[in-house]
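Need a sequence for this fold. Nothing fancy.
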């Protein structure tokens, strides 16, 4: 981490990652691809990749991100390559999208698709963190909060971890609350766990369930967060944990957490046992296949095969 301490690189102001606006036509393809990917039953990943590709090359950020994830998980199935990953990331770099700097840092760190250069990787990670990317904030924060760090360096690392945690980064939340517990900052800890629950983190829901249980409210126990026993509140968090386990691969969220289990001292409201995300997921309509003319127009604009989403030159 010595390279980060040069040229005032350790200065850090917490910034949240912005959500880019998406082009309307490409968004139609993205939403259909996402529907194909998350519907129940067998998955047709080449078709999912087809629509993500055309949307991504037409400037759709989320399609770009999801296509990268598909290629990393099912590269051969979706005909993805390291070269395509690099090109997709360059699209985001050209738009100054924070995650693109994090991705480039990873590539430079591991020598994937580019010559390995750990020092350059740190610069890309720092740029991503400054622009609000929580993954970069956590990665650098974790490196800076080691036992051998000076107080100044540790404080900067902790700021980065807290910033990532407040954006819902799961591991950052767990690391920061572990520190808060040692400092007896229990209310700060459960506030971060509530953010984790809102973002669909089952571990956060589990910890809050135990924190309000009869065992967790005993000092000295693993789950003690300075709370009073509240069995109904504990039960509700346990139910949320079950939701996150049941829909794990679909990335569930709990945006209505404050209507289900607001943090003390707020009283528990009446609750019918349902979740906004689950109702929307189970009741979402089947989406029609995007219009052939739209698919062809967007594909032609980027030199892609409308039938596969792959570059025409690779046919």
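Here you go.
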């Amino acid at each position: 981490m010595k390279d980060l301490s040069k040229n005032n690189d350790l200065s850090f102001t917490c910034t949240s990652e912005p959500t880019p606006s998406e082009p309307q036509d490409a968004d139609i393809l993205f939403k259909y691809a996402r529907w194909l990917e998350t519907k129940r039953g067998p998955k047709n990943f080449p078709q999912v990749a087809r629509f993500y590709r055309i949307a991504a090359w037409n400037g759709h950020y989320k399609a770009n991100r999801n296509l990268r994830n598909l290629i990393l998980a099912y590269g051969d199935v979706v005909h993805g390559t390291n070269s395509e990953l690099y090109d997709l990331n360059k699209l985001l770099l050209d738009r100054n999208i924070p995650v693109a700097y994090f991705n480039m840092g990873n590539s430079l760190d591991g020598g994937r698709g580019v010559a390995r250069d750990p020092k350059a990787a740190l610069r890309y990670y720092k740029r991503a963190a400054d622009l609000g990317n929580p993954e970069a904030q956590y990665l650098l924060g974790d490196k800076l909060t080691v036992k051998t760090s000076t107080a100044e360096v540790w404080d900067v690392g902790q700021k980065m971890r807290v910033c990532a945690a407040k954006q819902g980064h799961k591991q950052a939340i767990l690391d920061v609350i572990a520190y808060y517990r040692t400092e007896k900052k229990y209310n700060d800890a459960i506030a971060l766990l509530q953010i984790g629950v809102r973002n669909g983190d089952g571990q956060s829901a589990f910890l809050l369930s135990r924190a309000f249980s009869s065992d967790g409210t005993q000092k000295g126990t693993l789950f003690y967060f300075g709370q009073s026993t509240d069995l109904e509140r504990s039960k509700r968090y346990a139910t949320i944990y079950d939701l996150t386990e049941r829909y794990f691969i679909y990335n569930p969220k709990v945006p209505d957490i404050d209507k289900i289990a607001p943090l003390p001292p707020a009283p528990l409201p009446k609750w019918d046992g349902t979740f906004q995300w689950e109702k929307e997921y189970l009741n979402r309509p089947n989406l029609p296949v995007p219009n052939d003319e739209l698919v062809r127009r967007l594909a032609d604009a980027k030199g892609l095969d409308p039938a596969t989403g792959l570059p025409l030159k690779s046919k």
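For context: Residues 169-273 form one domain.
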